[in-house]
Amino acid sequence: MPKLRQKLQKWIYKGLLEKIKVNPAYTSVIGKLKYAPIYRIDKDVASAYVIARRGLGFKERLPKNYRKLLEDKEFLSYSVARVEDRIAKLKKEVEEEKNEYKRNKLKSELRRLKRELKLLLKFLMDSGKSESATQEPVTPTPATPRKMERVRGSTHVGQKSWRVLSVALAFSCLESFRDFSPLKRVILLGDWVGVAKRKGLVPLPGQGTTAQNMCSFIHFG
After folding, report:
1. Nearest to 165 by CA among 176, 173, 157
2. For 12-23, how does the pLDDT look when each residue is reduced to its tens digit (9 = 90+)?
3. Are 183 and 173 in contact (CB under 8 A)?
4. How far apart are CA 136 and CA 151, in angstroms?
5. Residue in 73, 57, 70, 75 with CA at minimum distance from that of residue 158
6. What is the CA radius of gyration of the chain?
7. What is the distance between the alpha carbons of residues 31 and 42, in angstroms, rounded to a whole number?
8. Dihedral over Cα of 66, 71, 74, 80: its sign
9. With contact defined as beta carbons under 8 Å apart, do 33 and 62 qualify?
10. What is d(CA 58, CA 62) in angstroms, rounded to the nearest whole number?
11. How far, in whole angstroms, is CA 21 from its chain's centroid?
12. What whole-number distance in Å separates Cα of residue 211 and Cα of residue 122?
């Protein structure tokens, strides 16, 4: 690996390789949700893969079944319920924890979960439709075909959709935040219910509740 790195650096110095700066925003989220499950690779490797694709001008479109999930209010409501359930348990842990260091760590996680809950609720109440994607065109170079539309990754491209998916899938289809392989079934078949059942994540009572009703029992205090 060190020898390969040295060789690549020499090529760059000699002008044999083109340097392309890309926006790294959400490459880790896209990598772990889209490529880590399909190719069974580490999320960091998947993130690097997304960065490389951006440098080549490829767009990262949401897989068809992921788009359907964003329009599935039962899926979003179920994810909201699981996040809310985790928040309730964390609040009890904070109250019972005597160690100040551990209590502060729990409080930090609690604040993060509340932010994620607000994100899911807002998306759910906004009808669950992903925002329109905006792309930043880049002038083609001799190193790439002119017919390829080169996009280096605008910070506004599908951000909200990927963020919502990252939170919702983590709580509805995964029992581990390191193993993203179960998402392959979701990407290919759209079967999030089957994945949730296989992982022991049994749907909570009230699955399918509308966004308006969900808001009536979720508190951010």
Report:
1. 173
2. 555 555 778 888
3. yes
4. 6
5. 70
6. 20
7. 9
8. positive
9. no
10. 13
11. 22
12. 9
**CB-side neighbour CA atoms (13 Å) of 143:** 12
* Closest C-alpha among 154, 165, 211, 220 to residue 192: 165
Angle at 90 between CA 85 and CA 91, to 5 degrees: 100
Take residue 121 and report the two structure tokens written for it. Answer: 């609720």
Residue type, 147: K
CA 146 centroid distance within chain? 31
Could you read off the pLDDT tens digit of each residue along the chain, which spans 221 residues? 667 667 656 655 555 557 788 888 899 999 999 999 999 999 999 999 999 999 888 988 899 999 999 999 999 999 999 999 999 999 999 999 999 999 999 999 999 999 999 999 999 888 645 444 334 444 444 444 434 334 444 444 478 899 999 999 999 888 766 788 889 999 999 999 888 888 777 665 444 443 344 443 334 33
Give the total residue count for the chain.
221
DSSP class per residue in 122-175: HHHHTTTPPPPP---EE---TTS-TTS-EE---TTSSHHHHHHHHHHHHHHT-S
CB 110 within 8 A of CB 94: yes
- pLDDT > 90 fraction of the chain, expressed in percent and rounded: 50
3-state secondary structure at position 72: coil
Contacts of 107 (CB under 8 A, 6+ apart): 94
Rounded Cα–Cα distance for residues 160 and 163 (Å)? 5
